[in-house]
C-alpha cells in the first residue's frame, strides 16, 4: 500500500512538471504573434506617405470629435457661454489621444511625427481659418516631404506629361526624376509610342491606344490578327492568304520520343503526355485510345479493361462456394452419427449461407476505376 501511494505521488508530480513546462511555450507562442504585430506597426513608409497617414489619422480624429461634448441642445448658447469647442484645446487633446491608434502598419512612424511636431500642430490648430488644408500646410509647406499632384523632387518641379499612358516618377513627393514610367505597351519620353510587340489600335491628337500583337507575331506587327505579323515565331509558318499559321507538330513530325506517350498540339507548340496505364502505346488520352492493351488488361467493347479485379472476384466466388460445400459435407458426416444434431447444424448452415448471399447482393464490392469508366462510356450508369 505504501508503494502504491509513492507511485501515485510520482505520477502527480510528473504531470505538474509537464504542465509547468508547457506554460512558457504557450506564452512564447503568443509572444511570437505579438512580436509580428509589433514588427508590422514599426514598418516604415517613405516620408511623404507617412506624413499623409498621419494627416489622415488626424482628420479621422476631427470627424470623431466633430460635435464634441456639446452635441444637442442649444448650440448657440453653448458657443457663447462655454466657448467654441470646435477650436478648443480640449478638443485638440482628445484628437491627439486618438492619433495613430487605428493604424496597423507604420504606427511608430506616425507617433514619432506627432511627438516631434507637436508645436507645429498646435500652431496650425490656432490658425485653421488661415490654412484650411492641413495636408498642404503640414506635409508640403512645413515638413517639405510632399509636393502637389503632378509635381516632384526637392523643389517640387512640374512632372513630365505622360499622356495618360504612364505615371511620373516621384509624383507628389520630394523624390524621383519626374520622367515617365510608361504602362505596358507604351514607350517614349511622353509614352506616345507603342512599344515592341504592340501596334496603334487608335490615335488622335490627344489619345493613343496600343494593343498587343498576336501571339504568332515575331518582331512586331502592323495590326491585329496573324495577317499583319512582320514575321512568324517558331512553331508557325507564313501563309500568303492567312498570315502566320500554326504548325501541327503532332502530324508534321514524330514529336514525342516516348513509346507510351501521345502528342497534343497547341498554338505554336505541342505537349507530350503519358498514355493511360492500361495502354501499351496510344493515340490519345483514356483506356479507349490504346493501340494495344498493357499486361493485365484486355480489350472489351473498345476499351482496355483491368482483369485483376475480375480474376480476384472469380477466386473469391470459388472460395465461397467451396466453403459452402465443406459445410454441407460436414452436415452429412454429422448426420451419420446424430440425425437431430445434423438437422440443427444444417439449419444453421442454411441460414448462414442465405444471409451471406443476401449481404453480398445488397452490399456489392466497389467498382474499380476502369469499370466505372467503361460503364459511363456505355451509358450503364
Automatic annotation (TrEMBL):
Keywords recorded for this protein, A-Z: Disulfide bond, EGF-like domain, Membrane, Signal, Transmembrane, Transmembrane helix
Membrane in keyword set: yes
Residue span(s) of domain EGF-like: 155-192
GO molecular function ontology, one term from the record: calcium ion binding
Stretches that traverse the bilayer: 340-360
BP term (GO), one: animal organ development
Keyword Transmembrane: yes
Superkingdom classification of source: Eukaryota
Disulphides: 182-191
Signal peptide positions on this chain: 1-20
SMART domains (UniProt xref): FU
Protein name as annotated: CLUMA_CG016174, isoform A
Source organism of this protein record: Clunio marinus
